[in-house]
Design brief:
Blueprint lengths: L3 E6 L3 E6 L3 E7 L2 E7 L6 E8 L1 E2 L2 E2 L2 H11 L4 E2 L11 E11 L2 E12 L2 E9 L2 H7 L7 E2 L1
Antiparallel strand pairs: 1-2, 2-12, 3-4, 4-5, 5-11, 6-7, 8-9, 9-10, 10-11
């Protein structure tokens, strides 16, 4: 197992990835996205965190599930979810997109706790690359 570094994300989430992986933060009006990827593979983890509340009352997990499922309605349920055991409510969908002549696999994982939704999108041309590295999601925790 490679040496891991823990990264703090918005809304008190933390995740760990190998020390030799690259990471970036892209800023968007709706929030920052954090990218993590190995230098020798086309695998990319794109992570966005949301706090969902109304008048200082956090959204229940059921509402977060509905929101996430609606976002993923063009995707199908994923069996990759069996590889994730981080202790939170998890929803997992997969599909693919085309980039030129390449078929890029896409797995979208929603990690939920009352009032907070962490969306992890994983992209790679090879499915086994996703399956081999999805276990880093088991390092997700709240701090």
């Amino acid at each position: 197992m490679p040496e891991l570094i823990a990264y703090l994300l918005p809304n008190d989430w933390r995740i760990s990835f190998p020390k030799e992986w690259s990471n970036e933060c892209e800023q968007y009006p709706e929030g920052n996205q954090f990218l993590f990827y190995p230098k020798d593979d086309d695998l990319t983890f794109r992570i966005t965190s949301f706090c969902v509340s109304n008048e200082s009352k956090y959204a229940p997990i059921e509402v977060l599930c509905d929101v996430f499922q609606d976002k993923c309605k063009q995707l199908k349920k994923s069996k990759v979810i069996q590889l994730i055991n981080c202790g939170f409510k998890i929803e997992c969908f997969e599909g693919h997109i085309r980039e030129g002549w390449k078929k890029v696999r896409w797995v979208s994982i929603g990690v939920m706790v009352e009032g907070f939704l962490l969306i992890v999108n994983v992209f790679a041309t090879r499915r086994n690359s996703i399956e081999k590295n999805i276990n880093y999601l088991n390092t997700i925790c709240r701090v």
